[in-house]
Specification:
Blueprint (H helix, E strand, L loop, with lengths): L2 E5 L3 E2 L5 E8 L8 E6 L6 E6 L6 E3 L7 E6 L4 E6 L8 E7 L20 E2 L3 E5 L2
Parallel strand pairs: 2-11
Antiparallel strand pairs: 1-3, 3-8, 4-5, 4-9, 5-6, 7-8, 9-10, 9-11
């Protein structure tokens, strides 16, 4: 069973930056499409970014486009979410998710939907406040 570990959440002031990391225990993430989601208190989980396993396709929610960047470092078996110009509205628990390669599609495309992904991290808290 693939175990996803997401980390890097912290408290940061508005306008600051954070980098979240997504790694896997015992599996090579190269083969997996990866998504980042977030859930704020009282709100539904939101898909904010994803990247295909090839790295050739990525997608961003309007709310984060131009501020967040998803990237893959296969040598470190890690997918990052670089978050810049953070706003109070970015406060949430952030989750990394992976799509099972045997389901197909993930090598060339990704979708920011819960049901596109099969494995989930435990979540990491990001708090943006002054």
């Amino acid at each position: 069973q693939l175990q996803i570990v997401d980390s890097g959440g912290d408290w940061v002031q508005p306008g600051g930056s954070l980098r979240l990391s997504c790694t896997a225990s015992g599996f090579i993430l190269d083969n997996y499409a990866i998504g980042w989601f977030r859930q704020a208190p009282g709100k539904e989980r939101e898909g904010i970014s994803c990247v295909s396993s090839s790295g050739g396709f990525s997608s961003y929610a309007v709310s984060v486009k131009g501020r967040f960047t998803i990237s893959r470092d296969n040598a470190k078996n890690t997918v990052y979410l670089q978050m810049n110009s953070l706003e109070r509205g970015d406060t949430a628990v952030y989750y990394c998710a992976a799509r099972r390669p045997s389901k197909g599609l993930g090598s060339v495309v990704c979708q920011r939907r819960d049901d596109f992904f099969d494995y989930w991290g435990q979540g990491t808290q990001v708090t943006v406040s002054s």
